[in-house]
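Structure tokens please, single chain.
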Amino acid sequence: MKGSSFKRKLINSRRVFTIGAHSFVRNAWLSVAATVVMSITLGCILLTLFASYTLNNTVQSFTDKIDVSIFFNADVDKEQIQALSTDLRNDSALEVKEITYVSKEDARAIYEDSIKDSIKELQSLAQTNEDTFPASIRVKTYDTARLQDVVEVTRSKKYADIVYKDSYKDDAKRTAVDRLGNIAKFLRNAGLVASILFGAISILVILNTIRMAIFNRKDEIEIMQLIGASKWYIRGPFLVEASIYGAIAGIAATAFFYGLVLAQAPKLGSYVEEIRPTVEQFESIMWIIIPASISAGIIIGSFSAYLAIRRHLKTKTTK
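Here you go.
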């Protein structure tokens, strides 16, 4: 008995899927419209994620380059510089991330490398003495706002005898990063709004598509109810039909994203370096994004069909 009951359920499930698939084909134009709108929705979500990761990498890249250089007097020895560096590291309020020591020789070599194509400047450099380029330290903090606090410490009377000057003039760099962060936030919000908007449109299109399918099969549904067909047998095909919309939309959206967006993105890498790690990251999680997109499409489609069934199937067809 249990075996035959399971076999009957299996046969009914196969029939439900077959009816849903036939309905998808029968309502071809409506199916295409619903699938296209849902594909746009899922595509917006993928593009928003891609842009968000790229902008986050860009902000992080600019943030990592922000530091302040502290220059020392010519007669200051390395031990004094190390003592100051230790004081900065031990001050937890400064949130020091990294301190790099640059000797006089290193500073001269860095400058020489930057003017290697200018013969006149190289000739001028050859006439300078070793004290022209003072020793220094480059300080990075986890929070760029703390750089001002670092400078206030090094400008204090305690270090007045060893500190010559610093490179901190204003917070222009940090302001630029903050603006970039605000742009990234705006684009993320815009992408989220677009995704929600197209998601709502997808639900409305699918809801109306299923509603029309219910009306088209009104007589058939009434007959099935009269002969005692189960709720699943009646409602299942509509859920299957909507799930097919979602599955195809998920495949189409990921195909567009990986076939076009990621294929063209490396060409922009020469202009925006931060795109490359984002592309590599998305390629490495392809096996997650593809099933996730298909699942999201199926969930949206099934939810839309559920709303249509709950609203129209009972009120319009049940006696």
